[in-house]
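TICKET: design request
STATUS: open
ATTACHED STRUCTURE:
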């Protein structure tokens, strides 16, 4: 590698992380222990918790927006990450989430030969709503997106989603459900309820874990759990692996592969999806993937296949491959 890599897997208000359960920590597992990669899961990762909590208060987005714009937040910049690289290769900073723009400008000054890359795992219109300063800032050497429509619209390089495969135990009472879904309600809750009803009418046992649903939109069903808190990613993976099939329903305007598709491939699970882009991938197999346009297309007999599910996965979604892609893109600039 020509570069050393620092991957920022945090926002300014993160204080702690769980090495066993956090989504991004799990996704990046394949990069742990490398001499040329530093995984920065939280700001001040090498500092004591009390100092991180003080940092967190000083960077509280809610207080900052509602009451008082805290001054002098740049005093923390030298402590956010510790440079432990053993050589002096130039550094590429990869932003998976959202370290502050002021901090990225600080890095640019401290490391004049550095590169800064943004990897967007959400569509741009959502980022414009929540992180407007990011889409307007001119601090990135490369902005990449998982969403092909955004790549075409903005001229971004495209990357497929990534995830490390970890060991998930199989429950003695497997399967815990026939079809498992977990995710935010977003704009798809009415459709999820219709899909649940369609599957259960055909005799399938479903478990749907849905967060951020509007009270007036909640329809009660025995196998639908509404929650204000997301399920830990480790627990979500456990349910995915211990169910016969994973359900993937895309949010409006999003194209590209999602984590549900990656989970199905990594752990050899059946998949029901409305994402027609999956037909473009080498992993598409109609014996293992039921592609639907509406809930009426669902045929629950698909769940009773006796054939062993095997996508012949060979590390194609590993984060190591995405770092190699960035290295290739940087070599062309």
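STATUS: resolved
RESOLUTION: sequence designed for all positions
ATTACHED SEQUENCE:
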């Amino acid at each position: 590698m020509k570069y050393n890599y620092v991957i920022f897997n945090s926002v300014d208000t993160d204080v702690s992380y769980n090495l066993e359960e956090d989504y991004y920590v799990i996704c990046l597992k394949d990069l742990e222990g490398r001499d040329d990669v530093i995984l920065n899961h939280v700001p001040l990762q090498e500092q004591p918790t009390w100092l991180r909590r003080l940092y967190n208060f000083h960077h509280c987005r809610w207080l900052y927006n509602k009451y008082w714009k805290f001054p002098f937040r740049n005093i923390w910049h030298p402590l956010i990450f510790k440079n432990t690289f053993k050589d002096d290769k130039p550094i590429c900073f990869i932003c998976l989430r959202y370290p502050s723009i002021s901090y990225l400008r600080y890095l640019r000054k401290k490391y004049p030969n550095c590169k800064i890359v943004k990897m967007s795992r959400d569509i741009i219109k959502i980022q414009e709503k929540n992180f407007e300063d990011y889409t307007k800032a001119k601090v990135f050497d490369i902005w990449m997106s998982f969403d092909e429509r955004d790549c075409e619209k903005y001229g971004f390089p495209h990357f497929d989603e990534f995830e490390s495969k970890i060991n998930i135990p199989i429950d003695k009472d497997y399967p815990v459900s026939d079809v498992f879904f977990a995710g935010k309600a977003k704009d798809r809750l009415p459709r999820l309820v219709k899909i649940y009803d369609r599957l259960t009418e055909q005799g399938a046992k479903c478990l749907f874990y849905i967060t951020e649903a509007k009270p007036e939109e909640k329809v009660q069903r025995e196998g639908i759990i509404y929650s204000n808190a997301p399920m830990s990613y480790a627990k979500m993976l456990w349910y995915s692996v211990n169910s016969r099939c994973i359900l993937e329903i895309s949010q409006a305007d999003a194209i590209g592969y999602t984590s549900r598709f990656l989970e199905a491939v990594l752990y050899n699970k059946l998949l029901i999806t409305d994402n027609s882009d999956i037909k473009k991938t080498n992993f598409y197999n109609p014996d293992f993937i039921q592609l639907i346009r509406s809930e009426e297309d669902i045929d629950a007999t698909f769940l009773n296949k006796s054939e062993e599910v095997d996508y012949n996965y060979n590390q194609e979604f590993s984060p190591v491959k995405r770092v190699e892609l960035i290295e290739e893109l940087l070599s062309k600039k």
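CLOSING REMARK: The chain has a mean pLDDT of 88. The two ends are 15 Å apart (CA to CA).
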